[in-house]
Every structure is written in C-alpha cells, then in structure tokens.
Amino acid sequence: MKRFLLTTLLMLPMLVAAQTIGAPDRKTGEGEGPFNRLIIRGATLIDGTGGPAAGPVDIVIENNKIVDVARVGAPKVPIDESKRPKIGAGNTKEIDATGKYVMPGIIDLHVHTGGKPKAPEAEYVYKLWMANGITTVRGVPFGDLEWSLKERERSAKNEIVAPRMVSFHRIGTGKEWDGKKILTPEDAREWVRYAKKKGVDGLKLGSHRPEIMKAVLDEANSLGMGSTAHLGQSGVAQMNAIDAARIGLTSMTHFYGLFESMYENHDVQPWPVDINYGDEQHRFGQVARQWNLVKPNGEKWNALLDEFMELDFYINPTMTIYSAGRDVMRARNADWHEKYTLPSLMDFFSPSRTSHGAYWFDWTTEDEVAWKKYYQVWMEFLNQYKNMGGKVTVGSDSGFIYQLYGFGTILELEMLQEAGFHPLEVIRSATMHGAEEIFKPLKKPIEYGVIREGLLADMIIVDENPLQNLKVLYATGAVRLNDETAKVERVGGIEYTIKDGIVYDAKQLLKDVEEMVNKQKKEREGK
Question: What's the pLDDT at 83?
Fold first, then answer.
C-alpha cells in the first residue's frame, strides 16, 4: 500500500540533523546507590503538590522508594534525636540536609537530545539536565525511534547517567517505515499500532489532515498512548488547538493553534502579502504579530478556557524557547554560555539561513516589542487557565534559539512566575502536574513527581530556598552580595540530584560538562 509521509515546512528541521552518540556506560563513582536505606536528615520539604514548605523532616528511602517522610521537630528548636528514623546497618547512607531544601525532581516534557552538528554526544545533554535538577524528560523525540527507545531502556536500568525518559515520536518514523508513506486513516492507525508494539510511549503530532489526525488520536487513545502536538503555522488554518482537542489530543506544546482558536476578526492569520514561510525571520517574526488579534476576557477567550477545562486539556507552553525574541542580546550573553555551551552549539545558535531557530538575520527593536506584547497576552491566558484549575506543565525545547539544555528548563520556571504563578504553583507544574500528564493515558496513579511514601525517589537537594528565588535552581546558582565580606558570590545551584534512589553530585556533573566544553575548545585551537 502506498503511503504518504506527512512532512511540512513546520517540521524543518525539528529532528536531529544526525544521530547523537549514545551516552557511555555509567562509570564507577558516578552516583551512589541505591541503598538499602538512605536518610535525608533535617530538610525543609517542598513536596510538589502546591502545599507549603515544612520542616525539619527526615526522608527515608529504601532502594528506589520513599518509605517515610517523618516530621522530626519544629523550626529553630533542637531535634530530639530519639525520635528520628534509625539508619540501620549495611549499605546505608545519611545526608545532612539541615538548613537545606528538598523538592521533587523537575519534569521537562519537551526535549530533544542534540545531535550533530551542535551537540554530538548525549552525555553532554544528559548531564546538563541532571545538573539542573531534571530527573524526568519527555523526548518529542530524543532522536531516531530505535535509538531513543534504546537510550530510554538504558536509563531505566541506570546503566547511564541520565534522567528517566518518556519517548514520543512523530507518525511515520521507525526503520520498518523508512521510505513508506501514509495516505489514509487506516495507514495512520497501522503506524500507531506499530509504534505501540515497538514500545513508543506517545505521539508528537503536527497539524495533519483532519481525517489523519482523528484516526491517529483515536487509535493512540485506545492503546493508552499519550499525545501532544506542535500545531505548526502551516497547518493551523485547518487544525487549530481546539479542533485537535475536540478529536482527542490530550495536550499541546508551544503556542501554535492557541491564538488561532480565538481570533476576533479573522479565521486565519493575516500574513503580509510578501510572506515566505521558508524564511525563518518571516516565520518567527510574524508569530508575535498575533498579540492584538485576540481579546483577553472576551467571549471567544473565555469559551476556549471553559472548553479546555471540560476536556482536561494540558498546556505545555515552552515559553523559554521563544523568549530570546524579547531580548536577543540577553539570551546570547547568558551567564552559562562561556563555560557550559559547546562552541559547536554556539555556532548553531548564531544567525544562519540553514540552522533551525537561528533567525536573527536583521532582528529589530520592533520585533522585540511585538514579542514582549505577545508574551503578555499569552501569559495572561496561561495564568487564567491555571487559576481555573487547568494543568500547565513545564517544557523547554532547548538546543535552539540560544537556550542551553537544563538551564532553559529553569528559565521556564521563572517565566511561569512572570505569568502570575506563585512559586509553589510553578514547582507543582514542574513536578506533580508533569507526572500527571505522563500517567494520564496509562490510567494509573503517578509514580513520581511528589515526595510521598510509596513513590519513587526522584528529588533534588538545594541549599537555598527556591520559593524565595527560583534562580537558585540554575546549576550555576544565583548572584548575591555578601554583606559581611562586601563581595559578590554565587549561591545555590543543585547540590544533589537523586534519581531512582541514586545520589548524584550535581556540581560534579556540571564540572564534567565544563570538561567536555574545554575539550572541544582545545580541539578547535589545535586545528
């Protein structure tokens, strides 16, 4: 049967340009554990549910499960040692977290794993994620289907230093489908069944023809597979966000199709007559010109909020990936680029007609003003949806547009706070709500994303209060003036990232990244 593989300019080139080199096996000393019994002592707990921070607590982990969260006293009062959980003997460990904060590991629901020419080795990306406290990632996709599934299984077995992996893929991919085409709804259903058999967790869709989209979503939902969509601008006139949600899409990523679902006086975006979508400055510059095409709190705006709520629709905005449009100079000169961004990745970010997302051909103040206005409207919608009880999750899509893996995820947290989210709501989006989106299609309770007895031990330890300043979650920490020494210093940064009960020194992971960057710099100097 002839099939037509659905490809459009909106996908170009979202997949990695060349396959990433898989991570090396985890070396001796990379991570300790899991332990028969691990106790994190005296921490202040932010549990991920949105509830207030509380402490001191002792958190007891046996192998990879949390078995006890024990309140062991009151703030500023000495702890009665007789009331603390006992450590036991043999393969045990204690971490003194007095004065420190513990929260669930961060869940990033929109990632890719680099690839040539920008970031050839997966180890670089994985360690950046882990150094920034990210313990679960959803690849949309990580890379080629078979490679992604292999890396996912290696991570599940803790054979490599990497977060947990959830593997989503575009329709028509996979070695057995190479060169084949999808023409009909039945072809699409056949591919979904194939993907399920291969072990794919869910689908990353574009704006496919309505009959194809409906068939794919119907089959995926019947098989317990997740779905999200980058409803690219080339297709939203035929399939916008509410169109897709009505036929079974469970979440959207980015903003494509959102504004188009509630235009006041247009049915399609009024593009300039000289638009050429193949020119990425046209493509990304014009997106922001939608800011005044919708009416906040208008009839269509409110109707969309209500219908998304009724459908239990998840929004994964990935604001960070487009934020350079508001101030490209800031993004280009971020604190972490010098030490932790590979020269090859910085080359990819620089203005280029061929590198995806490097569209700074002649970026203007007017472009940045439009993007700032666009974000104001977009953030207002997200905040209202959250206030109604809607689920907004965290994604980064880093590796493009001056956003570095891991660091872009923490920037997303900051941008949710800018949108109006309380820091507790931000952390809930990054943890519990992310887990709920993963487990929703499985019709199962979450297994991580909250620090509770019986759940998996995925968490981070930081020596500063992230509720007071989300910047302390960046691997590089936050800048603060020390009034005692009158010197500027960096505070915070993740101290430990715990995944599946294994304790990783997050600062050592960051040093490993720095060594990789230095190695590439030296190789370039030697040429």
Answer: 84
